[in-house]
Design brief:
Blueprint: H1 5-13, E1 16-22, H2 29-38, H3 55-62, H4 68-78, H5 85-101, E2 104-111, H6 113-118, H7 123-141, E3 144-152, H8 157-169, H9 185-188, E4 195-199, H10 211-219, E5 225-228, H11 234-242, E6 247-250, H12 258-266, E7 270-273, H13 275-280, H14 292-298, E8 302-304, H15 309-312, H16 316-327, H17 331-343, H18 349-371
Parallel strand pairs: 1-2, 2-3, 3-4, 5-6, 6-7, 7-8
The protein binds hypoxanthine and zinc ion (ZN).
Family: Belongs to the metallo-dependent hydrolases superfamily. Adenosine and AMP deaminases family. Adenine deaminase type 2 subfamily.
Keywords: Cytoplasm, Hydrolase, Metal-binding, Nucleotide metabolism, Nucleus, Zinc
Catalytic activity: adenine + H2O + H(+) = hypoxanthine + NH4(+)
Length: about 375
């Protein structure tokens, strides 16, 4: 689904930041079957789960998710085929390649070590693979990248705590206070993981289950985000902010609480909205129901993201196109969205300036063509 061609070209080349994409959500059915064979991993038998009969049946099943948890049941099976650092590297590299083609200049990507580690994959194997994928993409396409490590809400707090300690001990967690003069050389070491997040099942686990970990991370100056307000109501967003999240992943239920929405707008908190994901997981019945217009009018900052593109059938450009189809935004409104994505990114001022200049030049070039 695409708007007329000049709009499509405008959206393709609009310099984008993506802040909400799970690397494990970039595993296509083709790659799942390929890696399962290569790594000798047993996928569910088709007699137990007919979706795993072939690439075609799995792809077809992905078109009929009934809820977040229904999707997650496939997502956590899919990722079991990843075993070696090279698998993680290839997966990340493939995402960045596609993102680059879609006009992404800066990408902040989630990864979920806990499930991999529970089945015996070493933390180092995962992180070194993903870091290598990031470095290759940076070198090849000049894209800037950030890794965000997610804690999973359907697993125990203790499991998340163990992962947090491992990442801390490895010196992997980037802190925003890293260049303070009071820090020792060891403390100044720049981490390869630029933030922490949490995801998986929303309604059920305690809203504040990672309170202690987030408090510890906040005190260390580690960037924090959290999935909230996807299936859960606006109180999940309020709790995520209360425990220290600086951004909200999804956040589409924010509009239910006018006061909270005003606060989010006032404080410039970024929502990483995923419109196609919301449709695929039946959080809304169409992209037109995602509160894009409401957020724009209220001055709420948000970016547009793909979430799990291999499962939802839409990489980020397609998400932009579907938003344009549904809302018919103006060039200046796209400028606001693109600029807010830069402002909400976990990058330095110089990179922000560079990206803002690219957006400005692009918008100026297309404004006349599209709006006369
Ligand atoms: N929500 C929660 N957890 C997830 C998602 C999501 O959209 N994608 C991958 N893990
Ligand atoms: Zn997500």
């Amino acid at each position: 689904m695409c708007p007329p061609s000049t709009w499509h070209t405008f959206l393709t080349h609009l310099p984008k930041c993506e802040h909400h994409v799970h690397l494990e959500g970039c595993l296509t059915p083709t790659l799942i079957f390929h890696l399962a064979t290569k790594n000798n991993i047993q996928l569910p038998s088709p007699t137990k789960n007919p979706a795993y009969a072939s690439i075609a049946t799995l792809t077809a099943r992905y078109g009929h998710f009934t809820s977040l948890d229904d999707f997650l049941s496939f997502y956590f099976i899919g990722m079991t085929v990843l075993k070696h650092a090279s698998d993680f590297e290839e997966l990340a590299y493939a995402y960045f390649q596609r993102a680059h083609e879609d006009g992404v200049h800066h990408a902040e990507v989630f990864f979920d070590p806990q499930v991999h580690m529970e089945r015996g994959v070493q933390y180092e194997e995962i992180v070194s693979g993903y870091v290598a994928g990031c470095r290759r993409a940076e070198k090849e396409w000049g894209i800037s990248t950030r890794l965000i490590m997610c804690f999973l809400k359907h697993l125990s707090v203790e499991s998340a705590g163990r992962l947090y300690e491992i990442a801390l001990e490895a010196g992997h967690l980037y802190t925003t206070t890293a260049d303070s003069n009071n820090k020792s050389e060891e403390e100044k070491k720049e981490g390869v993981i630029h933030g922490l997040g949490c995801s998986s099942t929303e309604v059920g686990p305690p809203k504040d289950m990672f309170r202690d970990i987030y408090a510890s991370a906040s005190a260390r100056g580690i960037n924090l985000t959290a999935h909230a307000g996807e299936e859960g109501d606006s109180s999940y967003i309020a709790t995520a902010l209360e425990i220290g999240a600086q951004r909200i992943d999804h956040g589409i239920r924010l509009g239910e609480d006018e006061e909270l929405m005003r606060r989010v707008a006032r404080e410039g908190i970024l929502l990483t909205v995923c419109p196609v994901s919301n449709v695929q997981l039946k959080c809304v019945s169409s992209v037109a129901e995602v509160p894009i217009r409401k957020f724009l009018d209220a001055g709420v900052r948000f970016s547009i993201n793909s979430d799990d593109p291999a499962y939802f059938g839409a990489y980020v450009l397609e998400c932009y196109c579907q938003v344009q189809e549904a809302f018919g935004l103006s060039v200046e409104e796209w400028r606001v969205i693109a600029e807010n994505g830069v402002r909400g990114s976990w990058i330095g001022e110089e990179r922000k300036r560079e990206l803002l200049e690219r957006i400005d030049a692009h918008v100026k070039e297309y404004k006349v063509l599209l709006e006369g």
